Amino acid sequence: DQGPVPPPAADGDAQEPDTPHTKVYMPALSSTMTSGKVVSWEVSPGDFVESGSPLLTVESDKADMEVEHLGDDGYLAVVAVDDGESCDVGDVVAVIVEKEEDAKLWEGWAPGQAGGGVSTPGPAASAAASPPAAAP
Fold it and tell me: Which listed residue, of 35, 54, 60, 74, carries a Cα 20 to 30 Å from 2's Cα?
């Protein structure tokens, strides 16, 4: 029996379902941006997301900018930062899965609070679709 995915661990780190997925990170929309506020999501959990399509609008230190999804096509499984909430550049803001049926396995998942280093600023108005680069 392959019952449901186990709940998050008690220490605050979330258990990630073992499904093909892409984490979307808060992008650096300017060279001075250290955090951003999600103004609005253009898609909802369960929606199909195409590469190049608008994903969310972010308020930076300079302006509100629409952010496109630059990863592979998939389905929005998790919105980790809701409308009106802020987070640091490089924090996970969403998870996109390849298969629609995998989205439900991510319900209730939230990124762990054990930070993972500093991300490098990405190109303007593009959500990072891969983990922040680790120092060599």
Answer: 74
